[in-house]
Amino acid sequence: MSFRPGQVIARRYHKRDFITWVQAAVVVADNDDGLLLWEPCGGPLVHYRDSAGRSLKDAPIDELVAAAHVHTSFQRYSALMLHPAGANYSVWWLFAGDRFAGWYVNLEAPFERHAVGIDTTDHALDLEIDPQRHVSWKDEAEFVARIGHPWYWDAAEATTIRATAERVAALAAAGTYPFDGTHCDFRPDPAWSMPELPDGWNQRRLAE
Hints:
Layout: E1 8-15, E2 18-31, E3 34-39, E4 44-49, E5 68-73, E6 78-83, E7 89-96, E8 99-108, E9 112-113, E10 117-120, E11 122-129, E12 135-138, H1 140-145, H2 155-174
Parallel strand pairs: 1-10
Antiparallel strand pairs: 1-2, 2-3, 2-4, 3-6, 4-5, 6-7, 7-8, 8-11, 9-10, 11-12
């Protein structure tokens, strides 16, 4: 299954059968380089939070009490998101208006396609890379705290996740694709409207 440019899809994170994050994104390209998506600032975003307002950054999923989907919007930046086929990460180009503000690397499982969009599983660990390619590690405490939890990753998987982050950080420091200036001048198609979450975004299991 491939997606067509201009199509609006749901980009989702899940933990087992629980959908924990949903974005509405516009397909820019779907080719050998990977799936490239656009999420404008102000676009719809759904978080999974419990009755105390805690998210998965605050506690493991099995400790959240009476959790539910909370509708909000993608704030501060617009993002161009590249999902290389089979990769354990996605690379985001962040834009403040028309200004390129840096890259964000999200460590995650290889994405799976379905009729409404794509699903992946967040690995907590992230990289922030400024326009001068200085790399900062993000959410390391959360990543370490989840090691060995049955809903997350064991020690061997954690080693693999960290090794992936180190490899991508080295690409950034060297200015190697996708950190070589590609897409830093990206502008969305003016014909695109603000995306909306497609029907079926909250179905737990979706077939191709």
